[in-house]
Structure formats: C-alpha cells, structure tokens
Amino acid sequence: MMGLLLLLLLSSYLHQGCQVTAQRLFTIRAVSLTVEPDSDSSRGTNVTLRCQAVVSSSGPEPLVREFSVFRDGSRVYTKTSSSSEDFLYLLPDARVSNSGKYKCEVSIEGKSMSSESRRLTVRGLSKPALHLNKDVVTEGEEVTATCRAPGETGSIFFYFYDNGNEIHEERVNGNQAEATLRFSSAGIHKIRCDYTVLITPDSYKSEESNTAIVSVKELSITPVLEVSPQYQVFEGDTLNIMCTLRNLLRSLDSPQLYLSQGTHLLSSGTTKVNHSMVALAKGPGLTFECRLDMGHVIKVATRTVLVTELFSVPTLTLAPAEVFQKEPMTLTCRSENVASERLDRKELTYTLHPLENPLISTDTGVFTGKALLFDFNYTCTAEARDIVKQSETLTVRPKVSVSTPKISIYGKAVLGQPIQILCQSDIGSLPINYTLLKGFDEVSTISVQLPGQRAIFRVTAHMPEELSKYMCEAKNSHREAPLSRRLNATVIVPLANPTLTVLPHLPDISEGDHLYLICAVKGSPPVTFKWYRVGDKLPLNTTTTDKNHKDFQIPALSKQDSGIYYCEAVNHANTIVQSDRVTIEVRMALWKKAVIGGVSLLVVSLLLLMACVLYFRSKRGKRESAAELSV
C-alpha cells in the first residue's frame, strides 16, 4: 500500500514537471483587418473581412487563437482556431444593413490585441413591392397593404402614401410591414410605399414601390344643414338651424350628428338636430357645420349666414387730443353705422365705464369733466334692443404742465472761458423745449426728449456782470411757458498781473534783517501762493488765502539766503501765473563793517607808530655816530 502511494506521488511530480517544461513564450506582434474586394461595395457583393494576426512563439506547434469581429463597437462573431492562417469573416450577398465600422480582436492565453477599424459601405437597396388585399371598397372599409423589401435586413422604417401624401409609418426588424388603411373620401386612390434602412448614424432610403390603385365608392348617406331665415338677417333676429340625414341606410351602425359653430358645439344627436339662437354680427358671417360621424367615415355640410349689424361697435374719443392734469376734457362715445331700416339712432343709449368715473353726461354719448392727476382707463357701451357692444379701452394719460425752470451753472464759471448753464424744471411731461435768453433775446433752444437728458447751454462771459443777464424758458405742449429767475452765479476771474515785492528795499538788505516777500495778483480768491528760489525743486512755502496778496517771511537773513526769487499763484480758474524774478543780495551787517573799519584803523595806527619808533631810533643812531666822530 505504501509503495502504491509513493508511485502515485512520483507520477504526479513528473507530470507537473512536464507541464512546466511544455510552457512556451509568445507575443502578438500585430493584428490587421482588410475588406475584400473593396470597402465600398455594391449590394449583392460577396464581401470578405480578412483578419491577420502576426504571432511570435518559442515552439513549433500553433497556439489556440480566439478571433472576435466587432461592428460599430458590438461583438457580432467569435471563433476559436488553432491554425496560424488568416481568419475570414464572410458576408455573402452583402446588404446595406451590413455597412459599418469593423474591427478584429485576437486573444491568446489571456493576451489580446485589436486591429484598426475599417469602414464597410454597401450601396444600393432593392425596390419595394406593394400588395393590397382589395382594390374596390366603400367609404370607411379597411384595406390591408403589405410592403416588402426583398432581401434586406436590419432596422427598417416603412412608409405608405395615398396620392403622394404619407398616411402611415411603421418600424420593423424585418423586411416587410403591414398597414391597415381606411379611406374617408370617394374616388381613385393611388397607394405607394418605400422604406429607409437605419444604420446609426446614417440612413438609406429606397426608391418608390409599384403603384396600387384602390377605387373607393361613396356612401349615399349625407348630412343636410338648413338655416332659417337665410337672407336679410339682422342682429337680434332668431335663427333656426336644423341638421338632418339624407339616404339613411339601416345597415349603417349608429351614425352620430354634431351641429357646431366654429369650435363651439351647439348640439348633437343621431338622426336630427335642432338649435335656435339670436343672430349676432361677428366677422364676415356666421358659419355653421353639420358633421356626420360613422366611425371611420366623416361627412360634413356647412352653411354661412351673413348678419347685418344693427349698429357698429362704438368708438371712444378724447378731446382735446392732449389733455393736462385738472384741465377740462370731453369723451365722446359713438356708433358710426346704424341700420336705419331697422333701428332709429335715437334708440341707442351710451354708458361710460367704469360707472364711478368723475365725468358727467352732457349729451347722448358725450361726457365731460376734468382730467385726473393719473392715468385712467375708460370704455363705453352702446345698447339697443338688448344688443350691447363695447368699445376698445381708451387710456387717458393726462400730461403735466412744465414747472418754472431753475437756472444754474453746471460746473464752474470762469471769465473768458466756455461756461455751461443748466436749465431744468422739476416736473413736466416730455418733450420739453428749454430756451436760453440773454436779456430777452433768444440765444438757443434745446429739446429734452427722454428722461435723464439735460438742457445744458454753452456761453462765454467777458465781464462778471454778463451772467446775471441770462434766463431760461421751459415749454411743453401746454400753452404756458414759465420763465426762470435771472442767473445768480459767482464768476471766477482768472489771475493776472502777479508781482513780487521785497521788503526792505533791495539795496538795504543786510545780514540779520527780517525779509518780507509779498506776492500780489488781480483775480478771484481764494488764491494759492507759492514762493520759489531758483535752484530749489520744491517751493519755499505754499499757502491759500481769501485775499489777493500774501507775504512770506525769512527772519535773520544770512549770506546763504542770497539768490533769485519769484512767486506763483493759482485760483479755481486753474491758470498759473508767475511773477518776475527778483535777485536778492544779502550784504554784510553794519556792526561787522564798523569792527572791520576799527581793526583796520588800529592796524594802520600801529604800523605808523612802529614806523615812527623806527624813524626816531634811526635819527638817534646817526647823531650818536656823528658825535663820536667829532671827538
């Protein structure tokens, strides 16, 4: 027993070792797909898709290969082969439904590779064949039509036509479709069909089929419509309408009659329908319809009755055409046309709506009063012999008279420069014409048409008192044209004639003095003054004052304060003016001059003294020498 177990274990070990030894190395190098004979083929061609796999392996025996064919991303065929030959996918007698993008995939022991996609286009569809089970029928009788697409496959839409008009559509996954047709009109009907093969995203349409003729016999039963009276019908007359059947056959199943006016169903019944109504004038006439419904058979009789108006729809008018708030106005309601042979105009009564309106009736259809402060909608009705007609809505929009305009400067007024003058009223209906006056002479006019627009005039003043002569007038369609006050505005006079005055006077300026640099101009304050010394980038001083002059002081002058000085000035006219330049030389102080003079005198005195001493010494030496010689 133990020996048998050892023998089995050894056999299993040797078998596993053989399997390991039998494993081979391989690689799928390439997979290609070709379409034969051509990727663009005609219907009926035998098309072959050739899938070729190039595989490298370490053994002589062929590997087991699984070939899969895909069309438009869906797997359509799979086959396993141990042959290294090309795999052929056959499409005999190809159809349009075979068109699409094809791809081949090869799988070997868990490894796979796909080819590039190739598009196959098959052109041409078979001619459809149409067959009818009957060629002579009566109205409403059924006919079965069969349309075939010989040899075609796939998803197909079939279309059926009656005298060129499409009457039925059906989608099938086959090559034929049936349609049940019914004909509601007698005569000859030419029936045809065609089909479309759907191959996403494209579709292919066939030619038309043969033509089949159906002869439809008319049923003798007909609807009859009678209206009384038929002629000389006026508003308010009573109309009697009757809908009946002629040639009723007992074999017919439950006929149904419908009497209607437009989309309004007046009455219904089986064999006879009556209806009475008061005639009203609407549009070109009253059209009635008697409709016979027998399931699949519909027959219609119509009749139009002309109705003459007793009186026309009233119109509501306003006088005057433009009315202003709280001013008198008149509304007139009137029917222009009256059938005098049936109605006296005096029988018409007019009413203004809404009834709580502020106007009073002063005559037939005439209403007067004052316009409101807001928009108001009015309508009126005309009534006679229980017939009431209403006018269209008239919206009265009272206008607002223009208020007294205000005149002002827009921006700032600088003498000698363009000045903008704004003329504006607080209230008033547009358009408003603003006229600028100088004195009482018209300068120009601006029309304000839209909200937000402004009337801004441009003028130039050369004297300050000129601006006070301007006024403006505002006028809309109201009869009054209010005038503004005269323009009251401050005029900015540009600066001129700048001067720089130096105190003390230039020849008297010495070290230690208190220097005043006074800058003065002519023009409107406030004025901003700046003082400069040539060579310095920044001003020595800047100040703003409500006066036309200002001084800048330099206390305790020194020699370093010598230089060239000037000043600048600017006001709201934004014109900078500059003074002439002044050269200031700071001289030595008097006490310094005195000290220097005293020192100089002392030095001279000492020099003279020394000279005298030397002189006297010289004289004395000469006398002593002479005395010694004489001895």
Automatic annotation (TrEMBL):
Q: Which residues form the Ig-like domain?
A: 29-121, 498-583
What processes does the entry annotate via GO biological process terms? cell surface receptor signaling pathway; cell-cell adhesion via plasma-membrane adhesion molecules; immune response
SMART domains to which the protein is assigned, alphabetical = IG, IGc2
Parts of the chain that traverse the membrane: 594-616
GO CC field: external side of plasma membrane
| One Gene Ontology MF term | transmembrane signaling receptor activity
Signal peptide (from-to): 1-17
Write down the InterPro entries for this protein, in alphabetical order: Ig-like_dom, Ig-like_dom_sf, Ig-like_fold, Ig_Fc_receptor, Ig_sub, Ig_sub2, IL-40-like_Ig
- Keyword RNA-binding found: no
Q: Which UniProt keywords apply?
A: Disulfide bond, Glycoprotein, Membrane, Signal, Transmembrane, Transmembrane helix
One Pfam family named in its UniProt record? Ig_3
Q: What's the protein called, per UniProt?
A: Platelet endothelial cell adhesion molecule-like
